[in-house]
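Figure 3 (text version): structure tokens given as input.
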């Protein structure tokens, strides 16, 4: 059961302004008790649940402001007089949606030997043979 002291400890832990020793003093227990409570499944579950509630609230608040932020970002891209700022903003935008744009292509020859490589002499010989076949016809 989460009693009043544990409730206060959870609240202080969530505020993240005090050290464990200071929280223990505020609650009226020794520091080790706070650590023991944090190992207790019920206390730990309640602390985790409240942390998740805070995260969820933050995400909802952030999501509510996202359209405003996106509009301001796009206004910056369209209306800035600084071409470097515009370039960087557009590059960031592109990379966020399609991934990092490669700056060079690298080609690797994975063949194990040179038996399939043609030399200019090989090509000339094949052309001469073809021409000889055509003149025979």
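Below: residues designed for each position.
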């Amino acid at each position: 059961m989460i009693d009043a002291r544990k409730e206060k400890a959870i609240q202080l832990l969530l505020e993240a302004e005090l050290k464990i020793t200071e929280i223990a003093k505020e609650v009226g227990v020794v520091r080790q008790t706070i650590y023991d409570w944090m190992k207790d499944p019920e206390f730990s579950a309640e602390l985790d649940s409240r942390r998740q509630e805070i995260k969820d609230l933050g995400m909802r608040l952030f999501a509510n402001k996202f359209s405003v932020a996106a509009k301001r970002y796009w206004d910056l891209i369209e209306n800035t007089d600084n071409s470097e700022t515009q370039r960087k903003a557009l590059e960031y935008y592109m990379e966020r949606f399609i991934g990092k744009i490669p700056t060079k292509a690298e080609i690797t020859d994975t063949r194990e030997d040179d038996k399939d490589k043609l030399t200019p002499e090989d090509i000339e010989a094949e052309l001469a043979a073809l021409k000889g076949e055509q003149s025979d016809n």
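The CA atoms of residues 125 and 131 lie 10 Å apart.
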